[in-house]
Amino acid sequence: MTLFLTEDELAGVVDLGDLIDSVRALHADLTLGQATQPVPAIIDTAPSTVLLPMVSTSHRLGLTAVKILTDAQGHGSVQQSTVLLLDAATGDRLAVLPGRTCTRMRTAATSAAATDALARGDSRVLGLVGAGPLAVEHVAAVRRVRPIERVVVWSRTRERLSSFRQALQRRDIADGTTPLDVVEAAGIREVVEAADVLCTLTPAREPVVRGEWFRPGQHVNAVGAPPRPDHREIDSAGLARATVVVDSTDVSLAKSGEAVLSIRDGATTADDFRCELGDVLTGLAPGRLGSEQITLFNSVGLALQDLAFGALVLRPVAGTVRVKGG
């Protein structure tokens, strides 16, 4: 039996807290050899449009995820994706999921897992560069792992900020959480300098955040730039100032502009991108070493994280599909 779900049908199926745990477990599996995550190819399908077929397998869960992502920058920067879940042993098709909800939730859950592993325990101010749906999801996710009291947010438009406030209010009601103090910043530097935890959530090609703005003890989640080696949100100085942790070394060195361009500029070397989130989660790498250290999670996005979401979608119907361990 194959499970087919629409975006509307996915709403409420996956609990965000469970997803954070699922992401943690699969990143640990990747480090321990219980999952595989090859570097995806980039295929030019039209001028300014690329296709990324992303694949990952969890040997523990017996699942393979195949995500097809198209990034059509010449057509309004539209990203679309579909996730296919397979039985890793038999190849049987288990589920076909639209990618929007999956991508938004698993991206925020991964940022939360990284924040929990790397940010100071007393972090109370969340800074957001960007105010779209991914920003709302990040507020909900980071609140699960740190005692956030204030959100400082910047967007290019007043309309987007108004939509962000309204969406955050609806999310607070749905989640039963106490509304946070939300401050609208006049500029990006104001967000950076105010934040204990900073999330950059823009599809930038040129850097919008300067490393000279970072302050001691800060944790940064670099999230928004698409997986293209010529796109980045944070300049080379920022990568040089921070202790960097990546979702995947191989993927970062191939697809992340933060990595590729800072190495090109001579600010970092490939060795600065060797520490993976799974290394920190399993205790093979230390993560944060002190209260003044600046940490940065370079989030490119992996099919492994889509698999973490898909495994939870399949769990309620585990009696009708063959899924091991989940």
TrEMBL record:
Q: Which residues cross the membrane?
A: none
Top-level division of the source organism's lineage: Bacteria
Q: By its UniProt entry, which Gene3D superfamilies does this protein fall under? A: NAD(P)-binding Rossmann-like Domain, ornithine cyclodeaminase, domain 1
Alphabetized InterPro entries for the sequence:
NAD(P)-bd_dom_sf, ODC_Mu_crystall, ODC_N
Protein name (database record): Ornithine cyclodeaminase family protein
